[in-house]
Design goal:
The termini are far apart. The chain is 43% helix and 16% strand. By secondary structure, it is an alpha+beta fold. The chain has a 4-stranded mixed sheet with strand order 2-1-3-4, with helices on one face. It is built from 4 helices and 4 strands.
Length: 122
């Protein structure tokens, strides 16, 4: 880089790449995949969400992604569901079976499965 203008050109070029990564979907499912999450079983949970969203034909409306540490290791595997209106629901102690239920009731049906949320965790 030789100038601010060159830096701004690089930024403009990369904005499109960032937008693609974010997706243009209505809802986002984020699975915590740090070491603690993986050790607690997050990989099958991530796979269940990916497969369930695909099987339900929701790939245009729902993005499934992974992240590192969410910061609540004692509740792993942790999944966050982000809605278009900015609401975030945190599901804890997840399993592949619970993921299927969340896809049916929350993602498709619009009803939070409260017994799996962080507020209900014991």
């Amino acid at each position: 880089m030789k100038s601010v203008e060159e830096l701004m050109a690089i930024k403009a070029k990369m904005q499109d790449k960032v937008a693609v990564r974010r997706g243009v979907t209505d809802m986002r499912i984020v699975v915590g995949m740090a070491t603690c999450g993986i050790a607690a079983g997050a990989r099958p949970v991530l796979n269940a969400f990916v497969e369930g969203v695909n099987a339900a034909g929701l790939t245009e409306k729902v993005t499934v992604t992974q992240t590192g540490c969410i910061g609540i290791c004692q509740y792993e595997p942790v999944v966050e569901v982000h809605t278009p209106d900015g609401e975030k629901v945190t599901y804890v102690k997840m399993t592949a079976e619970k993921a299927a239920e969340i896809i049916e009731k929350h993602i498709k049906g619009g009803n939070v499965v409260t017994e799996y949320t962080i507020g209900a965790a014991k």
